[in-house]
Specification:
The chain has one domain (7-53). It contains one helix and five strands, in the order βββββα. It has one helix at residues 58-64, and strands at 7-9, 16-19, 22-30, 35-42, 45-52.
Length: 67
Amino acid sequence: MAKKKQTLDFSNDNITYKTKEQRVKVLSLNLNNMNVEVIVVEDEKKKVRKIPFAQLPKEVKKVLRPI
């Protein structure tokens, strides 16, 4: 039996933060491996990336609160 993918969707929420010259918006959080899917906007270019939950700023972690 396959594992259920447990994800929390934050695409409707406006959870964003800035790093250097980038603006990052949180899309979803996968609870199985604690990866966060984000959109990185830099110079009008958008990229979807997956980053570890641990690399998020403390303010964003407090909003997401997976556990």
